[in-house]
Amino acid sequence: MSRSMDLAPSDALLDPSLRRQSKRRLTGLRMLYFATALLLVFSLVRLITGVANLTAAGTVAAALGLAVPIGMAGLGGLWSERAGVVNIGLEGMLVLGTFGAGWAGYQWGPWVGLMAAILFGALGGLLHAVATVTFAVDQIVSGVAINILAIGMTQFLAAEWFTGVPGGGQTQSPPLEPIGSVTLPGISSAAATVADQGWFFVSDLAGIVAGLTTDVSYITVIAIGLTIATFYILWRTAFGLRLRSCGEAPYAAATLGVNVIKYKYIAVITSGALAGVGGAFLAIVAAGIYREGQTGGRGYIGLAAMIFGNWRPGGLAVGAGLFGYTDALQLRGGGAVHALLLLTAILLIVYAGWLLYRRRLLGGAISMGVAAAVYYWYATTSDVPSQVAFVTPYVATLLVLALATQRLRMPAADGRPYLKGEEH
What we know:
mainly alpha
């Protein structure tokens, strides 16, 4: 008879492994309930405003694409900070990835471009590791220096390597070949058909499914796989436990035989490589060309997504998706952003109700006041200025971080230099 059948219900409460399994099931159910409730709100707002773009397949597909470079930068930050090294240089590593993809991609094809982007990003990570782990340089200073160095170096190399090449120039590479995409046959077309019916909730769900299963870039599939692999490696393997111990208690880990310096190097180099994947997506998929300045601060937004996700891959994916979605809405036009005002007001009212239920009266009152102001803005306007639509992703970044600060717990030794043989 199995172990779970041998245990009485009361025994399950005393068994730590069964408590963990129960907690995981409960967390999964809560996430499902939350996602369903959120989609119901989206459906309601779509019916009220008549803005189909909120859950249209095109919006979802655009949001997924826009989330990839943010998510890859954030995933790189997660690897680095879980090992105790703050990586502000992710923006520069994204830049190196875009340049590597542009330089190698136009000569040898997009897959070689992807490999070059990973290599260039990893070299940025290696530089950061040498500075911070070996020479104990201030991690913020090193990251900022890498950002500046990456911009300057790519500008110089672009002028040297792309000038005079057909289609290239001082600020851009020649056009790149597409890397290809995948569509799930049957599911994609059926979901698109249901989405076009305009049914409450069902069509919204179908629109999301269609957006996630139609013309999905191979790099997007790789990014999703890397996110899942990160969770498994860092939280389900002995290697991951040792790496995370370097970010929580490096000196204690060293006494148990963990080579802290080696694990920090692995984490920071991997961090740069993952940022390189995000850079490859920007150059090969999003633009089809390397262009100076195309990262647009996504490395910093990736760090914000990582913090929002509480240094966990699942939360990071949600944060990247949120930023990608708001970015996609502003690309769809001011009408979609105007509908987003009503959605924001409703969600703030729900959040205020939860705070009041938890007897956090001040926070609940503030959230209710902000909800009233946002709704007044929605009710008294028919559109929003293009400037508001443009800054929507950055405002969302600030709001998400402000709302998430109460539940965050960074790795205990994050940002602290590790000096072998010394304990502080």
